[in-house]
Each structure stands twice: as C-alpha cells, then as structure tokens.
Specification:
The protein has about 260 residues and is an alpha/beta fold. A 7-stranded mixed sheet has the order 1-2-3-5-4-8-9, covered by helices on one side. The two termini are about 30 Å apart.
C-alpha cells in the first residue's frame, strides 16, 4: 500500500511560504515537511515550492541527494548542504522550480555498494545488479509520483548530490535513465559499466576535489571516461585545492544552476 503525502496541505503551505517570505526568504522553514510511505517504509523529505506556486502552471523539478553525514530521521539534516542554493532570492525569481531534499535513514545508503573503510580513500565496490537499497527504492517511487503530477515539467527533471549523494546520483541515472534531463554528481563515484545506459541522453557536470582523501577523485574520472567512451560529453571540474568538501566551491560556481536548468529532454 502506498501513500503519497506531498500536497495534502498545499494551500496552507503556500500561505505559509508567503508569510515567511515576508520575514526572510533565506529561512529553511520555507521547505515543507513531507513523508513518502511505501508499505512499512517511510522516506522523509523536505520540499520547496516556487514563490507564488500555481498548480495550473508547470515547473522544473530538482532532486537533491545529501551525503552520509546527514542521514537520520529528523527531516532536517539533509538541508545542511545545498539548500541555500535554492533559497537565494535571485534563484527563486529567475529559476522557479520544485525542489526535493529526501533524507536517507541511518544505516542505509542511496547507492548499493560494499565499502572498505580500512583504506584511505575508502574503496567502493558497486553492486548495481542487485536490488536498490531501501532508500533508493523509496526515492525512485517518490520521483515516479512527482513526475506524474500535472504541474511538473517532465522534460526538466534534474538530480544532483554530494558524496554519498553523488554516488546516488550516478546510480539513479542508471536505474531511471529516461527520467532526468541533466545531473550534477559532486565528489561521488559509480559503476563505470553503467554509464552506457545514459551517457548519450543525460548531460552531466561531474565535480570533485583533487585532494579528496575520503572518496577518491579517480572515481569521478572513471565515470567521466566511461561516459566519453559510451559517446557522451560530460562536463568535468576537478578543483586542485579541494579535499572532500568540494561541494563548497561547486555551490559557488556562478553557472551551476543556470547550466542545470538550461538542459531539457
């Protein structure tokens, strides 16, 4: 049994956004608290609607996958990194979109892998041929529900994520290659053999720090190489000065979101 708890309080939430916008548009409280339930499993998520949301119009949809450090069940920690990108007043005015920040439960991961933490950087063995993790299965089900809504521009659905979320970005592209118009995986990695399923259809901007001692930057290089070999043309940025927190300079890229939204299917 599935329950889609997303727009049950749409009118109240829209009013709430309007009131909060007057008090301070940078507040994370502008993201509503939501839950997506499938059988006995629950995916908490936060949602930001465009200002003056109009259900009769259509909007792009962005899925943002957080890193391992933001896992939990408080439906708050996932907004630590990246949410300010979408709360920026200029962004909300020029790039109105529906933004989804799900939260992965503790002990689970977006991506299916085995990790050897005795090495530095960590060694990952990706297992895409297995069933997805519970968290990934819930996210995919949520996205199926979201793209079925009449106010979502199905040709402008995007995914981005950092660290564990960067790995989740690569994996959801493999599992849902026809859903996304563009993707931005930051300091992530994935199974290079999977790239052929989306390489020529989904533009990617792959970002990593050259000094990353948690997730090896070679993982991003391997994914970029695999995409090139499969006929794709990824955008690749390696920051020579950055360690694992390459999301900080990535979020400072002035063209990051304009590049993302410039792509459509």
């Amino acid at each position: 049994m599935k329950h889609f708890i997303s727009f049950f309080s749409l009118v109240l939430f829209t009013s709430f956004c309007s009131l909060n916008a007057q008090e301070g548009k940078s507040s994370k409280d502008l993201f509503s608290y939501e839950a997506h339930v499938v059988d006995s499993d629950t995916l908490n998520y936060r949602m930001l609607l465009p200002e003056n949301f109009d259900e009769s119009k259509t909007y792009p949809l962005v899925l943002f996958l957080h890193g391992a450090g933001e896992r939990g069940d408080n439906n708050k920690n996932q907004l630590v990194h990246g949410s300010s990108l979408f709360l920026n007043e200029t962004t909300r005015d020029s790039l109105p979109a529906i933004i989804i920040f799900p939260q992965c439960a503790k002990g689970d991961y977006w991506s299916k892998f085995e990790a050897d933490r005795t090495t530095k950087p960590i060694t990952f063995k990706y297992k895409y041929n297995d069933n997805p993790t519970t968290a990934m299965a819930l996210v995919m089900d949520l996205m199926d529900n979201m793209v079925s809504q009449p106010f979502v521009k199905t040709d402008q659905v995007y995914v981005m994520g950092l660290s564990m979320g960067g790995m989740g970005t690569f994996e959801i592209l493999y599992r849902k290659p026809k859903m996304f118009a563009a993707a931005i995986p930051i300091c992530g990695g994935g199974d290079p053999e999977s790239a052929v399923s989306y390489a020529t259809d989904v533009p990617l901007w792959i970002i990593h720090g050259a000094k990353d001692d948690v997730v090896d930057p070679k993982l991003s290089l391997s994914m970029a190489s695999a995409i090139l070999s499969a006929g794709g043309f990824p955008k690749l940025t390696i920051y020579d000065f950055a360690n694992h927190n390459s999301w900080d300079p990535a979020f400072a890229e002035p063209e990051l979101l304009t590049w993302l939204f410039s792509n459509s299917k």
